[in-house]
Write a structure and sequence with these properties.
The structure holds three protein chains of three kinds. In chain B, about 35% of the residues lie in helices and about 25% in strands. Chain B has helices at about 45-50, 75-80, 95-100, 115-130, 145-155, 175-190, 200-205, 230-240, 290-300, 320-330, 335-340, 350, 355-360, 370-380, 400-410, 430-445, 455-460, 485-494, and strands at about 5-15, 15-30, 30-35, 60-65, 65-70, 80-85, 160-165, 195, 210-215, 220-225, 255-265, 270-275, 280-285, 305-310, 315, 330-335, 415-420, 450, 465-470, 475-480. In chain B, the strands form four sheets. Chain B has a six-stranded mixed β-sheet, with helices on both faces. Chain C is mainly alpha-helical. Chain C is built from 15 helices and two strands. In chain C, α3 (about 35-65) crosses α14 (about 275-295) and α4 packs parallel to α6 (about 120-140). The chains are: A mainly alpha, B alpha/beta, C mainly alpha.
């Protein structure tokens, strides 16, 4: 009898998606609580639509952070990458002459080209990160710290801190338009979630990312090209950060070197809340998605209750600690238990 | 003789695993006591309990210098003069020799550090056992043997009354072992009790006054050294009488799957040449530091040799990376299974398929989930492993089953040459047989196996011939059918 | 003796010193105003804040931890101390006492969370950064304090020296605090047993635990010390700026971290020296100063700092790799 047939489908589904289901339950509970307090200020189509508008930029950045975390690292440069990408797109749009007349295919191609240029920059930064981390052996925190400062510095140097604004309608529509009532940005976000999820769960690359994050040395020994995996991981992380930048500039109709700095903490919070192990090796996109929606719900509710934005970030900080505390008691992060077990067996090792 | 430490009814379990079962042990001042047992017998756990790092399960008692305790703690143990020198030596690589030796004087209430006193303590400790190392050297720059001396000096500086050395000879040359044994004698003359934990029975018999044998977490017995032979100890340690098992490959000479010629890497090994034929299990043994693992890693592509050639099934292998070696059909099961062989938090299926992900991938690099499940299932069945759910983290399996997963991972690559580095370390005695059975089956299927092991017995009884390395060179070859185990041990320890 | 010198020439600090010297010589040649007393004096004064923070962060890194929340701690300490000083006549001693107590308390908060929750100090301190800062601005509504006590306005002015142009120089408040901070850290790490225990923890935490080190106590000390230094830095900054502006201190955390890492401290713990940290801070300060004197727009400052960080961490990683490869054979 094959081992895989031993568990019924339902119990397996529940167990593999425990985090997402917990978050969904919490979402309902929070909705109920805030709904009682705020009534139809919260429970309106308008609120849900605004949640759907606000989630994508943070969400896509969360995907970027998630990839780095899964591989056992951290990407502190996602915001700077996003901004630099946005500024690149903005510069192309503002400083080159538009192709064709407004509304024509040529015109659209020009904008697609601008976006492509921005994404190329984002991917380049990602490759730089990946190279420094994988091939030079620098720790991810330090490497992405360096690129973060350098990218932000580059952006400030080129723009002198100015804001670039005023973009063609199709670009603005990405951030503010809707299709059948659902914001286009949200659709883009969902599409990217599906893409990343497929890559992680079904592709050989995705499986390698998990293995590298779980135990880099063992992955190396198994014949996995760890350097290449890390390079691609950070390149993909950069690309996603770039998409996040696109959505940000589309929503605000402007680009600047310092946007979105508060997103860094929240992206880590969303990842940890969503069940992603900050040390690497485990985590699913569905968990991140659920965590993001929950955070956005709380954020909107707090906003409606006129909570100061500063009180809100203090709450995020406390929440990150709280969630991590809960997680470190559960099986996923029970490294301590496994470590004890290992010490008891005390394997012989040649190199002390 | 006064009893320094007495343990009664000590048990310990971790999760579902019984590390120790109802063990009694008494240690006299000034005696040289050896604690022997295979890996996984509970030796390390017992030591940790004596050191106070672990607490025994309720019900046991520890009487230290006349006073009874339910458990010890590191500070109490240290104050009472218990010093443990762990196998990893517990040194601080970023600090100097002097500071490592005199680290004890940094403990206690905050105060200014007295550097003169530190150097003084270190110098005196070194003098006590005739060691001469530069006090200022960073420990990270020292050889393993010298680091061990630093660790022993530290115990001296701490006014030890009981020194426990966990596998101290594992990384030493014969000459260094002799020095160490002299040191142990010095300790004895100072009325310091030494507990020597080792599975190298010849060294044990040279120095021990009493020997305690552990097996599978329980105590087999405590014996006077004069009343027991190393042969008998082996039997007690393993619970088996060994008899020869593997079949000879048929009359014809099979093709050579691995040909190594004049392989050299200065500092690691020198001028190594040997063959492995299809279906042959070749043993490779020698003291640690003999270059065995370095040689294995070179064949596996992770330690480029400076001279010599390697051929796999007749084709030359320029092993610049392990990926190249794997593609040529070389597989390597590392000694440190937990750190190098498995991703503990990942599912069993992910671990088994780690080596063959690219070959499972179809269009766009995507893997069909059904195909994946089928492949993983297949290996589990072939390995005869009982697994309740393939998606459980591999860390939940027992040591023996974990090793099977590692083996399965490598079998999936359909290797021509399989290198096993100490494959039964940390595996229950009963599970070891299962592993050997898989290895024999692989050989019967035509894989050439290189079995590297610390344990002379293991290579003697499970291989077709044994190669012995010493200090980087291949010094002899022993044929199990025509030689004796004693012979092999003499070759190793000569 | 020769062996010690030989060892030193291969060390991180030696190379860093060489870079600083070369950079300084270049700037002296390329600009008229770099190597002037006035410029160096200004440089010292303006680097005080980051330098004192570096002196505290070094200890955390040697321990094997990391702290990103110190700018928030500084903001809180500064605000609390000077709010109280506005209303009560607590004098210099009172200001320092209140600020340091606040800073130490925040640091202890970090230590307790890191120890009990058992997650990486990066995540904990990113959280506490937001908790401290968020609560501060929320409660104070972003108030500035511009009316400081009179003794605060005067600062200190010791050993005055007037140069040929009639400009007066002296050891001022900022310089004094900077020197005191580095001196204290030097004493802690090199002359006290506790400091050596901190090095040991960073070098091999498992061994330290086995030996019976009081891990929690050390952790509290280390993060508390960081809080203490953050408080001192905040007073230095307040005196220089003659105002308390909570929102301006935030943002420099990662640059201070970069300076200390540049100086040779690794994220894994166990290495780093005061001399190296000083050099690291100097390098970044001189670099930024030099850029301004060379006429490069200040908008490019951060970019150059980022590039230097990338180059430095890459070079360090490469040399470590080479060293390990060398030892292995």
């Amino acid at each position: 009898m094959k081992p895989s047939a031993n568990r019924s489908l339902i119990s397996r589904f529940v167990r593999e998606n425990a985090t997402t289901m917990t978050l969904a339950t919490i979402f309902m509970a929070v909705l109920a609580v805030f709904g009682l307090i705020l009534g139809d200020r919260l429970l309106s189509v308008g609120t849900f639509q605004s949640i759907a508008f606000q989630t994508p930029e943070l969400g896509i950045l969360g995907l970027a952070m998630m990839l780095a975390l899964l591989s056992g690292g951290l990407n502190l440069s996602i915001i700077s990458t996003a901004n630099l990408c946005a500024l690149t797109i903005a510069s192309v749009l503002q400083f080159t002459i538009p192709w064709g007349d407004a509304g024509s295919v040529l015109w659209l191609t020009w904008q697609v080209g601008a976006v492509a240029a921005g994404l190329a920059v984002a991917i380049l930064i990602g490759l730089l990160n990946g190279f420094i981390i994988a091939y030079l052996g620098v720790s991810p925190i330090l490497a992405t710290l360096g690129t973060m400062i350098a990218c932000k510095g580059l952006a400030i140097g080129l723009t002198r801190g100015n804001v670039l604004s005023g973009f063609p309608d199709p670009i603005v529509a990405i951030g503010n338009g809707t299709y059948l009532g659902v914001p286009l940005a949200f659709l883009l976000f969902v599409a990217l979630c599906v893409f990343v999820s497929v890559v992680l769960r079904r592709s050989s690359f995705g499986q390698k990312v998990y293995l590298v994050g779980a135990n880099e040395k063992a992955a190396q020994f198994s014949g996995i090209h760890v350097k290449r995996v890390l390079l691609l991981t950070y390149a993909l992380s950069g690309a996603l950060a770039g998409c996040g930048g696109l959505v940000m500039m589309a929503r605000f109709n402007s680009a600047n070197a310092s946007y979105g700095e508060s997103f860094l903490l929240i992206s880590i919070l969303a990842a940890v809340l969503g069940g992603i192990n900050p040390y690497g090796g485990t985590g699913k996109v569905s968990g991140l998605f659920a965590a993001l929606l929950l955070l956005q719900l709380i954020s909107s509710a707090l906003n409606l209750m006129n909570f100061s934005q500063f009180l809100t970030i203090a709450i995020w900080g406390a929440l990150l600690i709280g969630v991590s505390a809960l997680r470190s008691g559960t099986g996923i992060f029970d490294r301590l238990h496994l470590f004890e077990f290992w010490r008891a067996k005390s394997a012989v090792s040649e190199n002390p | 003789m006064t009893t320094f430490l007495e343990l009664t009814h000590v048990s310990k379990h971790f999760g579902g695993v019984r590390a120790l079962r109802d063990v009694d042990l008494s240690l006299e001042a000034g005696e040289v006591h050896c604690l022997v047992g295979e890996n996984g017998s509970g030796k390390s756990t017992l030591i940790k309990i004596i050191a106070g790092v672990q607490a025994p399960d309720p019900g046991g008692s520890i009487v230290l210098e006349g006073r009874e305790h339910a458990r010890l703690d590191p500070i109490l143990s240290t104050k009472s003069g218990i010093q443990v020198i762990y196998q990893d030596l517990s040194l601080f690589p970023n600090m100097s020799v002097a500071e490592n030796i005199a680290i004890g004087s940094h403990m206690g209430l905050p105060r200014l550090a007295n550097w003169n006193r530190i150097n003084d303590i270190a110098a005196k400790a070194m003098a006590r056992i005739n060691v001469n190392l530069d006090l200022e050297t960073m420990v990270s720059d020292l050889s393993i043997a010298n680091r061990q001396l630093v660790a022993i000096c530290r115990a001296m500086a701490a006014d030890a009354k009981l020194v426990i050395m966990d596998e101290p000879t594992a990384s030493l040359t014969r000459h260094e072992v002799d020095s160490l044994l002299r040191v142990v004698n010095d300790l004895k003359n100072r009325d310091i009790c030494t507990v020597f934990v080792s599975h190298r029975l010849d060294e044990v018999m040279e120095i021990a006054e009493r020997v305690t044998v552990l097996r599978d977490g329980g105590k087999v017995g405590t014996f006077d050294a004069s009343e027991i032979t190393s042969r008998r100890l082996e039997t007690l340690m393993t619970g088996h009488e060994f008899h020869y098992a593997p079949p000879r490959p048929g009359g014809e000479v099979a093709e050579v799957v691995l040909a190594v010629r004049n392989l050299s890497r200065p500092g690691h090994y020198e001028d190594i040449s040997f063959d492995i034929r299809k279906g042959e299990i070749v043993g490779l043994t020698g003291l640690l530091g003999s270059g065995r693992t370095e040689l294995a890693l070179s064949i596996f592509g992770m330690n480029p040799p400076s001279r010599g050639t390697i051929e796999v099934s007749g084709k030359p292998l320029i092993a610049s990376s392990n990926r190249v070696a794997i593609a040529s059909g070389v597989a390597y099961v590392p000694e440190d299974r937990l750190m190098l062989g498995l991703a503990l938090g990942q599912p069993i299926s992910a671990n088994i398929l780690a080596t063959v992900l690219d070959s499972l991938a179809g269009k766009f690099g995507l893997i069909n989930p059904a195909k994946r499940v089928a492949a993983a299932d297949d290996w589990i069945v072939r390995l005869n492993t009982k697994v309740s759910d393939l998606e459980n983290p591999v860390g939940t399996l027992s040591g023996g089953n974990q090793q099977r997963v590692v083996l399965g991972k490598w079998m999936a690559t359909k290797p021509r040459v399989l290198i096993l580095d100490s494959p039964t370390v940390g595996v229950d005695i009963k599970a070891k047989d299962g592993i050997y059975e898989i290895v024999h089956r692989l050989a019967a299927e035509g894989v050439g196996v290189l079995l590297i092991s610390d344990e002379a017995q293991e290579v003697f009884y499970h291989t077709h011939r044994v190669l012995v390395m010493r200090q980087g060179r291949l010094v002899s070859e022993v044929d199990p059918l025509s030689s004796t185990e004693r012979n092999l041990q003499e070759e190793i320890y000569a | 003796m020769p062996k010690t010198i030989q060892r030193w020439t291969r060390s991180h600090e030696f190379w860093l010193l060489a870079v600083v010297i070369v950079l300084s010589m270049f700037l002296t040649a390329a600009t008229d105003s770099f190597l002037t007393l006035q410029n160096l004096f200004d440089l010292l004064t303006s680097t005080s804040f980051a330098g004192i923070l570096a002196a505290g962060l070094l200890v955390v890194l040697v321990f094997g931890g990391i702290d990103i929340s110190f700018t928030a701690i500084a903001s809180v300490a500064q605000y609390v101390a000077l709010t109280i000083a506005k209303t009560y006549p607590i004098g210099w001693f009172g200001v320092f006492f209140v600020a340091c107590c606040t800073g130490i308390l925040c640091g202890l908060f970090n230590a307790v969370i890191i120890h009990k929750v058992r997650i990486s100090s990066v995540i904990v301190t990113i959280s506490t950064l937001n908790i401290f800062y968020g609560l501060l601005i929320y409660i104070t509504r972003g108030d500035y304090i511009t009316s400081l006590p009179s003794y605060f306005r005067e600062g200190i002015w010791w050993f005055e020296f007037t140069d040929s142009n009639g400009f007066p120089y002296a050891i001022n408040f900022q310089a004094l605090l900077l020197v005191v901070a580095f001196f204290m850290t030097w004493v802690l790490l090199n002359k006290t047993n506790i400091g050596r225990q901190i090095y040991a923890m960073g070098g091999n935490e498992i061994a330290a635990e086995r030996l019976g080190f009081h891990v929690f106590g050390l952790r509290c000390l280390v993060y508390g010390y960081m809080g203490f230094m953050a408080a001192i830095a905040s007073i230095s900054q307040a005196q220089l700026a003659q105002s308390v502006t909570p929102t301006t201190l935030i943002g420099k955390e990662l640059e201070v971290l970069a300076a200390v890492v540049l100086g040779g401290a690794s994220l894994a713990g166990g290495n780093g020296s005061v001399f190296g940290a000083v050099l690291g801070v100097m390098l970044i300060a001189i670099l930024q100063n030099g850029l301004i004197l060379l006429g490069v727009s200040s908008y490019w400052n951060q970019f150059f700092v980022g590039c230097v960080i990338l180059l430095a961490v890459s070079a360090t990683a490469l040399s470590q790799r080479r060293r390990h490869a060398g030892l292995a054979s």
